[in-house]
Structures are given as C-alpha cells and as structure tokens.
Amino acid sequence: MSKSAYIPRLVIAAPHGQSGKTTVTLGLLGALTGKGFKVQPFKKGPDFIDPGWLSVMARRSCRNLDCYLLDDPSLLRSFAEAAQDADLAIVEGAMGLYDGVDREGSGSTAQIAKKLKAPVILVLDCRRMTRSGAAVVMGFQHFDPEVRIAGVILNHVAGQRHRRMLEDCIRDYCGLPVLGVVPKNSGISIPNRHLGLIPANENEALAKVFQRATALMMENLDLDAIVKLAQQAPPLEYATDFEYTAAARGVRPTIGVLRDQVFSFYYPENLEALTAAGADLVYIDSLTERQLPDIDALFIGGGFPELFGEELNRNQSFLQSLRERIEAGLPVYAECGGMVFLGRSIEVEGCKYPLVGALPFEGIWGKKPQGHGYTLLESLVDHPLMPKGTRVKGHEFSHIRLVNLDMSKMKFAYRVERGHGIDGQFDGLVYKNVFASYNHIHALGTREWAPRLVSLAREYAQKRQKVTFTVADSTEKKMIL
After folding, report:
1. Which residues are designated catalytic?
2. DSSP-assigned states of every residue in 204-221
3. Is residue 249 part of a domain?
4. In whole angstroms, what is the distance from residue 115 CA to residue 142 CA?
5. pLDDT digits (tens, 9 = 90+) for 315-335
6. Is residue 474 part of a domain?
C-alpha cells in the first residue's frame, strides 16, 4: 500500500563544500522557528554532528537521509513520517550538489532531491566572482534536468555593487530569484574538530554563534519567498505496507544507552527501533554515574572517548561495574568510540588513560583518519545480533587504531568487503555477549538489528529472574529446615 502526503519541503545545497550551506541552514531553521513555523530538519548522509546542531535550532530531532544506508521505501517513509506534523521540511545537503560515491552521483544531494521531488536552493560562495556566478548557477541548472533549482542564496557578498552585479546576472541569464544575500565578513565562524562540527551538547557557548546566524538570516533572507517555494513541492508518495521492526512479546527488557558528552552519536531511528521492538530505554551518563544501573543490555554509540580519557578514568567505580557486568554476561552492542571505551586504554599524544578493560586491546589516537566512509561487511560468527553470513551496510569515521589485540580471547565480528575496519580485512570484536565494531549501522537499513538486540536483552532478563527465584527458593528451604 502507498500513501500520499503534502509536505512543503526544500533542499539546501551548494556547488561545493565550505560554501556556507550549514550556516545558512542553521540560521534559516532558527529564523523560521522564531517566526512560529514547525520545521522538520534533515541531513543528507550519515553524519552525526551536523544533525545535532540542526536539532537544536529547529527544536525537533533531525533525521538522516542516506541513499546507501536506506532503500527507497525506507527513506521516503522515514522522511514523510518525521515531517507529517511539521509546517515544512528542510534538508541540508552535503559536499557539492552532484557529488556522490561514483561518476553517476549515487548518494548525492541531487539524488535525495529527486527522490523527494523537492525544490533546491543553491548557496553560492561569491568570493572573487561576479558574472561568473551566473555561469556556475546555469551549469548546475542544466546538468541534470530532473533536479529543480528554484532559487539562489548569495554568500560572502562584498557590497552593494557586488550584489547588484550578481543579482542582475542570475536573474537575466538563469531566470532564478535571489532569495537572500549574506554579507562578507559576517563574523560567523563555526568551530571544527577532526570529525566535523563540535557536537551540540558539548559547548553551550557555541550556541551564541548560531543565535548570530539566526539574526543574520532573518535580516538577509526573504523568508516568505522561501516558504512559498517549499509549498510548491508536489504531494509525496511513500509505501506503508512494511514494518521496520517486529514488536516482540514477553518480558519488556530495559536497555541502557550511554548518552552524554562522551557518547552522543545515535540515530534517533535506532533508539526508536529498540522501543518499537519491545524495550524500555534508560539513558546513562558515563561521567557521573557511579555504578551501572540494573539493565538487561547496553548500547554504547560513538563519540569522543579520546577527548575525555582523564574524566572517564576518574570514574573508576563505573568502569569496574561495567567490566564486572560484561564478565557476568551482560549483552553489549558498541559502535566506534563505544568499542574503544571497552578496551584497556586510549593513548592521545603520548598520554595513556586506562578505560573499562573488558576487551584486550589498546587504542591509539592519530591525526589521520583510521577509516572514513561507507562500509559493507559480512558477519564471520554465529552471533544472536549478526548471525554468520549476515551482510551489513554502514559507515565508519575514526582516528583511533587498535593495537595489542589478544585474539585468543576474542573473535573478529566481520569480514570487510568495503571500508577499513580494524586492519583493512576485519572489523568488530566478539567477546562473551559483547558485539563491538567501528561500524555504525542505521536501524532502517539493518532492520533485524533492533529486534535481535531486544530478544537478547529479554533472554538475559529471564535468566537473571530465574537465578533470582532459584536463590530465593533455596534460601527459603534452608530457613524451613
């Protein structure tokens, strides 16, 4: 079955990266939200960090749209269901509009725009350019006739003369409206880190940067014209005759999620999928909790353990309680920084910080990425989460390499068909009920993951209950005797 939904929508794109589309998107979200619009943000690609800021500015959870991780029915349904109660949806692109993983532009922002049938606003970096700006826009207009570029936002404009030349040329040669002009030297600079923007939850002072962006876009963009363009998008058809996860019956287990300054890389769909599959979630702060709470499984996402090694090491009681629970069989699923956290230590620029110590390896941080990009993996072990032979799509982005792995105590989880993983051939480690890897998955692309993790948690909860009842029954008999 399929459903038709009217969702006003736009894609914010650019000819190349570093054109200013993130600043424009953030400011536009802030401006429209400030005017009372309910705006649903989306980010093209697998990135975790930009969506954090988009969520803050829109006051709604940003969703990722990725043509590699998600098939078309999942992507369209995810978009439609997230935006169904919003006034409009805004998708921030990545890199240049037509840049994808191959010469056909697979996975590009343009491909997303075509699937969504969404008008595109092109953010043009106008430094050292006047009439040539129209040539650039015209090239993007005609490169793919299925992509509808509906307007242009000029960025880094030097003054009124510069502005008039650009506006006249784009109007006369391209027939497109200029929807805003952002002046050069606006005083906005978004700090970066080795994985991209600094996470939204890490530095509250950075919020001032985006308050400035909001004010700047309110002053310089034609918000009414932008909203009208979004409203011109046609109805969107999407499938409704499949389920993402199967809600399981029986005991409703509790799954802990480390979610704090250190570990913040979670797709909202992954957390929602666990709930839909029958689990209750409890969020845990690895820096402040002294003991691991009473849970039936643990999900540790990616993040920056390399930046919080000293703080994590101070919380020895928490590290010890987690290590003991793992030895007792607690199911744990960990991604990237979460996997590193379970190792013996992390070394950063000569300083070594002991960590959980449940997995026998050390991590060493370096300035160059260890692995960066999409992955395709095949499971090597018969594990409840990823049975042998399971093929998994995902992505990796890490600056940490693992050394001194003691494989007599562990097994590799995956064979790498695409990507780097741990050593270019294998990724992931299996130890007892721990399944950890560099690979990030998306629950709508790996639909069996959430039901399997919930089932594993449920089995663990039932075993614990059985042990508790047996001990209680034995104690009672001794008292009667």
Report:
1. 336
2. GGGHHHHHHHHHHHHHHB
3. no
4. 18
5. 999 999 999 999 999 999 999
6. no
